[in-house]
C-alpha cells in the first residue's frame, strides 16, 4: 500500500511539473534572454551592490533601468530613421517613374565580356522604367505581405525583449538564491559532479556572450572605418547601428548594403564598389572567423564542437540557439568524456584484480 502511495505521489509530481512547464512555455525565450543578460553582467551587479551597501533590490533596479535606456533609446531612434528611409524609397520610386534612371556609370562598359551588355540592360530598364514598375505591381503586393509578416516578427521580438528586461530585474535580485537552488537540484541528480557541470555551462555561456559581443564590436569598428573611407555621412551613427544589428544573424548587411546603394545613387561608383567589397569580405566575413574563435578560446572544447554548436544551434533554434547549441554539445561532450574515462579505469581495475 505504501509503495502504491509513493507511486501516486510521483505521478502527481510529474503532472505538476508538466503543468508548470506548460505555463512557462510562452515566456521561455524571454526568461532565457533575461538569465543570459543577468549572467553576462553579473560582475556589474556585484560591484554596484557593494557600492550601495548590500542593497540588492536598488542595485537591480538601477542596472535594469540602465539596460532599458541602453536598448530602448537606440530602438526608438532606429524606428524613426527607418520611417524616414521608407519615405525616401517611395520618393525614389516616384522619381524613377518620372525621370528614369541616371546615366549608366562609365566604368560599367569597361567590365570585360559583359560591360556592353550591362550598359544595354541599364538603358533598357531606363527606357521602360514605368512599364517595368507597372509589371512589378502584382509582386509588390507579395513583398508587402512579406514585409508585414517580418514587421509582426519584429514587433514580437520587441515585446519579448521588453519582457526579458523585466525578468532581468528578478534575476539580479534573486540571483544567489536561484544559483543555490540549481546547485542543490544538480547535487541531488548527479552528486559530486554538480560543481563541474555548473562551471562548464557557466563558462560556455560566458564565452558565447563574449564571442557575440566581441564580434559585434569588431564588426562595428570595421564598418565605421569602411564608412569613413567611402565617405558615407553619419559613419559613427551607422557604426553604432551595425553593432546593434550584429547581435542578430545577417544584421550588418542591413546597414552597409543600403549605404552602398546610396553611394551608387549619388554617382560615387568607386566608393560604392569599395564599400560593397568591404562589407562582403570584411564586415560580414569576420563573423564566420572571429565568433567561433572567441567562443572556443579559454575552454577545453575542440573547435569543431564549437562550430557545430554555433551553426547547428542557429539552424535548429534560431538566434537563441547560439547559446543553446554550444552549451548542449559541451555538456554532451563532457558526459561522454567522463563515461569513457570511467569505463577505461574500470577495465584497468578488473585487469589488476
From TrEMBL:
Keyword Endoplasmic reticulum attached: no
Subcellular location: Cell membrane
Keyword annotations: Cell membrane, Membrane, Transmembrane, Transmembrane helix, Transport
Protein family according to the UniProt entry: Belongs to the autoinducer-2 exporter (AI-2E) (TC 2.A.86) family.
Membrane-spanning parts: 58-80, 152-172, 221-249, 269-290, 302-324
Predominant place of localization: membrane
Protein name listed in UniProt: Inner membrane protein
Record-linked Pfam families: AI-2E_transport (PF01594)
Topology term for the membrane: Multi-pass membrane protein
Organism field: Candidatus Pseudomonas adelgestsugas
Top-rank lineage group of the source organism: Bacteria
